[in-house]
């Protein structure tokens, strides 16, 4: 599927397509993954609402179903019937995780604490992504983890985890800042004989800590250290999931760039480990207003953005982990801003659904941006005039949506090839973009 974005620059003013009004975004993927896994091993029934249609979340749901958990969907509500800490059952066959790295890595942590073996398979892209970073701590805890490539390779899916109970408690220092690796170890730690300790070099998103606490686990942070006590979970009943901030990021950046825009996104996650993007946008000159309203266990609220001319900035290595999903859209913002934006310490983008450094550089260059790579994990983007063109999604949902937003600012028509990949996280992204721009900017959706 190809999607064409139409825009026009006349005297510095967009003739069509400002983003205006009040919108919502799908439920937060990261929170939903964790809610399903915690609910599966908790006692009691858990209602999760709203349930998103993103493919990644369906993969995590399929994992717990394969492990013997009953689920019932009614509209946007998902009911998980937990079987308690000892209730999971061996899957009859390898469990397919699709292209969801979060599903595979977190499920591996859960599988490590089971008294049976679980094989987790993956789609073509995920099957090439490195998994040694989760295999190492889980092996240290006593599970046996087998993958492709062995000691000489990258250790890729499918993974077979031969679990153990109880697992050995470890004190593990993350070699790279990774919320997924941290979460895998935290989930495994529930099945250890003593408290498990994780040391983070840089704080990462804390959804797993919050979710486990919501289910009654003992999880605490002491500076850079996170400690989880082994123990049973109990259902809190109903979990109201806020909107996905990483999905909202595309609309927020679009509204900050396109003259005449004023957009409010309601009921979106405002977890402080996820909202670094807002700090960066304000530093670049964006007009942002926040109104918090949600429950304390996962803060949420409304964010309003009005268009302002943006200027370049520097993204530091310390900021990069908190922006890991938003770096592509920030690259698009940088291409439309005044001056130079430097992205430092972003090498982790090379091991996502695609090499996002490469896909974003290629796409933005096609649109006329000046993008350089002074170091392997550093990208510099010089803002300026963009023109339309035909760009490739590289099969990556965040690349596709980021280039679509850049297309709003470019002069003329921008076509995104392979745009169907947005279904991974934000299936109706283009529909919501059309609605926010008054149906005048996203002009056509055609089969390739």
Major β-sheet annotation: 5 strands, mixed
Which regions have little confidence, pLDDT < 50, spanning 5+ residues? 9-15, 444-448
Radius of gyration: 22 Å
Overall strand count: 27
Helical percentage: 25-40%
Number of helices: 12
CA distance, first residue to last residue = 5 Å
On the 0 to 100 scale, the average pLDDT is 92
State which percent range the strand residues make up: 25-35%
The geometry reads as globular
* Class from helix and strand fractions: alpha/beta
Task: Map the helices and strands.
Layout: E1 2-7, E2 9-10, E3 13-14, E4 20-23, H1 29-40, E5 42-49, H2 55-66, E6 70-74, E7 77-83, E8 95-96, H3 101-112, E9 117-121, H4 132-140, E10 144-148, E11 156-162, E12 171-173, H5 179-189, E13 196-199, H6 207-214, E14 219-222, E15 225-228, E16 233-234, E17 238-240, H7 245-257, E18 262-269, H8 276-283, E19 287-292, E20 300-306, E21 314-315, H9 327-336, E22 340-343, H10 356-366, E23 370-375, E24 378-382, E25 390-392, H11 397-409, E26 412-417, H12 429-436, E27 442-446
Parallel strand pairs: 4-18, 5-16, 5-17, 8-9, 12-13, 21-22, 25-26
Antiparallel strand pairs: 1-26, 1-27, 2-3, 5-7, 6-7, 9-11, 10-11, 13-15, 14-15, 18-20, 19-20, 22-24, 23-24
Helix pairs in contact: 1-2, 1-3, 1-6, 2-3, 3-5, 4-5, 7-9, 7-11, 9-10, 9-11, 10-11
């Amino acid at each position: 599927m190809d999607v064409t974005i139409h825009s026009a620059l006349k005297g510095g003013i967009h003739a069509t397509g400002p983003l205006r009004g009040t919108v919502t975004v799908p439920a937060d993927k990261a929170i939903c993954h964790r809610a399903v896994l915690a609910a599966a091993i908790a006692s009691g029934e858990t209602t999760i609402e709203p349930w998103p249609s993103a493919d990644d979340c369906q993969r995590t749901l399929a994992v717990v179903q394969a492990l013997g958990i009953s689920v019932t969907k009614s509209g946007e509500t998902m009911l998980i019937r937990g079987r308690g800490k000892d209730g999971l059952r061996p899957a009859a066959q390898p469990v397919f995780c699709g292209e969801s790295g979060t599903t595979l890595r977190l499920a591996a942590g859960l599988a490590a604490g089971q008294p049976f073996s679980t094989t987790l398979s993956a789609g073509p892209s995920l099957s090439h992504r490195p998994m040694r970073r989760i295999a190492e701590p889980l092996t240290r805890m006593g599970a046996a983890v087998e993958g492709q490539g062995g000691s000489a390779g990258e250790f890729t899916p499918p993974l077979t985890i031969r679990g153990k109970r109880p697992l050995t408690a470890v004190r593990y220092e993350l070699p790279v800042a990774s919320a997924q690796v941290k979460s895998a170890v935290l989930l495994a730690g529930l099945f250890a004989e003593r408290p498990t300790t994780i040391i983070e070099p840089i704080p990462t998103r804390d959804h797993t800590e919050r979710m486990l606490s919501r289910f009654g686990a003992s999880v605490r942070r002491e500076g850079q250290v996170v400690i989880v006590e082994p123990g049973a979970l109990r259902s809190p009943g109903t979990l109201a999931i806020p909107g996905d901030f990483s999905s909202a990021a595309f609309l927020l950046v679009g509204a900050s760039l396109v003259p005449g825009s004023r957009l409010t996104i309601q009921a979106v996650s405002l977890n402080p480990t996820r909202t670094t993007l807002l700090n960066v946008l304000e530093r670049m000159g964006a007009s942002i207003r926040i109104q918090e309203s949600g429950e304390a266990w996962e803060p949420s609220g409304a964010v309003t953005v009005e268009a302002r001319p943006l200027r370049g900035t520097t993204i530091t290595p310390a900021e990069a982990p908190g922006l890991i999903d938003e770096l592509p859209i920030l690259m698009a913002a940088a291409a439309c801003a005044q001056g130079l934006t430097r992205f430092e310490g972003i090498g982790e983008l090379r091991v996502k659904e695609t090499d996002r450094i490469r896909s974003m550089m290629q796409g933005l260059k096609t649109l006329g941006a000046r993008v350089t790579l002074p170091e392997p994990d550093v990208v510099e983007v010089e803002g300026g005039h963009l023109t339309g063109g035909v760009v490739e999604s590289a099969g990556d949902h965040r690349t596709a949506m980021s280039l679509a937003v850049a297309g709003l600012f470019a002069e003329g028509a921008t076509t995104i090839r392979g745009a169907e990949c947005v279904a991974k996280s934000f299936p109706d992204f283009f529909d919501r973009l059309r609605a926010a721009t008054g149906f005048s900017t996203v002009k056509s959706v055609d089969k390739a």
